[in-house]
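Sequence, please.
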């Protein structure tokens, strides 16, 4: 048993404070052994390397196989569904994560290449599925995460091992087998596999045995070769590594040497990580650019975890002091710029301004533009583009990911229409940015019943006019953390400040309970249904009296409330009604037999039907607009089943904060863009009061 596994929290904190990393893995060991500088870049300074189309395809293949084996007990997942999972993985790779190469010079071509490759891998897998399934008796684990303290070659390793094991099975002959999926351009030579894969195998074996207490008998590496074999031989090849006492000793000895060297390096803040110029697995220009950056940058210029910042800051100061003492900062900066110029199709490391990068990347595709204005906003910047005569404006749209890649952001939004600014039309590009300033709630933005929603990049207040009959109701969508609830709070506060006294908040998720003194707040679904019926009755009464005093109704997560409300037979009104008479009875009286009058017979019958919560909401939306009712309906679920055509017609003001997918943005706003927002109040608004969709930053106000 590893002695460090018995350490308490304070002992572990002291232990980890001596190391530049908090865990080790097989991939970290091989990275260190292959190229120390690449290891330093990725594992210590957390500088992500861009991923090639082949690498993304391999990860997407793993995602598809994970789903397949997790659901194998229910039957084999068909190829189209596996492809859909793989394609979704590819779609979610951010623009600035793709590695552009000569064969794939654009992000679109990277996606196409990755899509074709993963389709081939899945097709090969399915056609030769028996390589896996012929031996499976039971599946013991899929994508199994292990974080274990291990003893390697008789030595207790002072950092935990992190391993994610693709698949663990019990075979029909009772063996426990670890399986690793590999996507390959060509098969690994059989003579090499035992030694090249033995270190990985023993890492997984020790981690799994430590986690579960089970003994592993074999490790299989199943390679899936993309290019078709001309001789028609199988595309899947299984390499078996037998785990016995002798192979355990051999592979642990092979693993221990590079692992020991890596542990020694990360325990020494002054260790100098060398560059391996013969390493073909990394981009040398990126590596040398990183090397130059470490000599002139501060620790805050890197994405380093808080618990390592102090240790790495000391290292960084020594590096910087030593380098600047012997080499001029001007020389280092010049070298870094020179290295950056060799990074293929990558503008993220150059000293060009963002405006110059936009102009440059579009020029490489034969599109001549000039950035006439750069407008700084809270969560995004807006670039107004003058497009040269003869250029089709629609052709710019398809290069939005290439622009994002050049600016080193996840995505950009290009307006569907032109923007008129200072009397001239421009194509505009909006890019997310790191927020440096918070837009606090302030009643100076309020003008009568024009409720401020936020401020756009041009400093103009974006409003919802409660007096405008063309904008009576508002729909708000947004994922968790996007700023939806904060926007509702801000709107309610402005409404109170504007003099709205009748405010009803339907809050099934208990997020607005603090407003019970300022508004009528209802949380339970039964109370929400009853109050909605009362509001409809009140509206019907207003139709006779002509009263139109403003009433604000806020319905948070209306879709969830509607689905949880009474449906069908639950809405039946049942009453005891007379259904006939019982047969007359004869009784003996003083003067002989007497016949009593028949008694009425009663039974519970359906005498009517209550309107559902959804029906009452629709009535209030349709008829309440002219009678002073103003409704804000909010939801996290931006699906066509929730945000229907009727909902959008009845709520002409539509606000969308960040959503996970492009299709969600299209459902709410009829065009993409909300998937690229930066969150925390960065929103898009469509309203009859504005000619185009407006991007704004919402106000921040605590409850």
């Amino acid at each position: 048993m590893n002695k460090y596994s018995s350490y308490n929290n304070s002992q572990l904190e002291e232990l980890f404070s001596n190391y530049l990393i908090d865990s080790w893995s097989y991939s970290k060991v091989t990275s260190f052994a292959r190229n120390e500088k690449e290891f330093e870049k990725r594992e210590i300074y957390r500088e992500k390397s861009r991923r090639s189309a082949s690498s993304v395809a391999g990860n997407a293949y793993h995602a598809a196989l994970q789903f397949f084996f997790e659901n194998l007990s229910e039957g084999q997942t068909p190829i189209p569904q596996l492809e859909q999972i793989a394609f979704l993985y590819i779609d979610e790779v951010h623009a600035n994560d793709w590695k552009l190469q000569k064969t794939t010079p654009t992000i679109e071509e990277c996606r196409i290449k990755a899509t074709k490759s993963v389709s081939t891998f899945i097709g090969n897998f399915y056609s030769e599925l028996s390589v896996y399934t012929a031996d499976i008796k039971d599946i013991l684990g899929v994508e199994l995460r292990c974080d274990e303290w291990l003893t390697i070659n008789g030595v207790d390793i002072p950092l935990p091992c992190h391993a994610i094991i693709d698949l663990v099975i019990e075979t029909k002959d009772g063996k426990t087998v670890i399986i690793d999926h590999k996507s390959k351009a060509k098969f690994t030579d059989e003579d090499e596999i035992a030694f090249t894969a033995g270190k990985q195998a023993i890492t997984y074996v020790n981690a799994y045995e430590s986690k579960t207490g089970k003994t592993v008998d074999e490790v299989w590496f199943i390679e899936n070769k993309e290019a078709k074999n001309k001789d028609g031989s199988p595309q899947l090849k299984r390499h078996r590594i037998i785990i016995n006492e002798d192979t355990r000793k051999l592979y642990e000895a092979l693993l221990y040497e590079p692992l020991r060297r890596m542990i020694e390096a990360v325990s020494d803040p002054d260790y100098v990580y060398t560059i391996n110029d013969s390493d073909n697995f990394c981009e040398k220009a990126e590596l040398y650019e990183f090397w130059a950056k470490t000599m002139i940058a501060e620790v805050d210029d890197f994405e380093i975890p808080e618990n390592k910042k102090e240790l790495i800051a000391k290292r960084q100061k020594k590096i910087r002091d030593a380098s600047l003492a012997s080499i001029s900062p001007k020389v280092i900066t010049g070298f870094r710029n020179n290295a950056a110029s060799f990074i293929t199709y990558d503008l993220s490391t150059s000293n060009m301004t963002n405006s110059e990068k936009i102009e440059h990347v579009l020029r490489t595709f034969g599109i001549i533009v000039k950035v006439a204005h750069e407008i700084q906003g809270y969560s995004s910047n807006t670039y107004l583009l003058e497009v040269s005569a003869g250029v089709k404006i629609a052709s710019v749209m398809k290069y939005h990911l290439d622009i994002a890649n050049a600016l080193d952001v996840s995505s950009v939004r290009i307006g569907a229409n032109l923007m008129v600014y200072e009397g001239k039309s421009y194509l505009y590009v909006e890019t997310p940015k790191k927020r440096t300033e918070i837009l606090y709630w302030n009643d100076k933005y309020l003008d009568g019943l024009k409720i401020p929603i936020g401020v756009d990049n041009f400093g103009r207040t974006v409003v919802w006019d409660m007096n405008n009959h063309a904008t009576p109701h508002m729909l708000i969508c947004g994922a968790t953390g996007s700023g939806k609830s904060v926007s509702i709070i801000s709107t309610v506060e402005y409404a109170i400040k504007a003099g709205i006294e009748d405010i009803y908040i339907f809050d099934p998720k208990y997020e607005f309970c603090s407003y019970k003194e300022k508004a009528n707040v209802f949380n339970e679904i039964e109370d929400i249904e009853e109050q909605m019926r009362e509001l409809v009755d009140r509206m019907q009464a207003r139709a006779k009296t002509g009263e139109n005093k403003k009433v604000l109704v806020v319905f948070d997560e209306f879709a969830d409330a509607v689905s949880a409300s009474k449906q069908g037979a639950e809405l039946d009104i049942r009453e005891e009604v007379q259904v006939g008479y019982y047969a007359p009875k004869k009784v003996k009286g003083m003067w002989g037999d007497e016949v009593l009058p028949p008694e009425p017979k009663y039974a519970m019958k359906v005498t009517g039907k209550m309107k559902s919560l959804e029906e009452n909401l629709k009535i209030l939306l349709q008829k309440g607009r002219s009678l002073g009712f103003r409704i804000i309906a909010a939801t996290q679920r931006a699906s066509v089943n929730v945000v229907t055509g009727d909902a959008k017609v009845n709520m002409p003001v539509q606000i969308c904060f960040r959503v996970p997918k492009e299709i969600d943005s299209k459902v709410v706003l009829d065009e993409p863009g909300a998937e690229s927002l930066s969150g925390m109040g960065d929103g898009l608004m469509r309203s009859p009061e504005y000619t185009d969709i407006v991007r704004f930053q919402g106000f921040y106000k605590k409850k």
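Residues 190-212 form the longest helix (23 residues).
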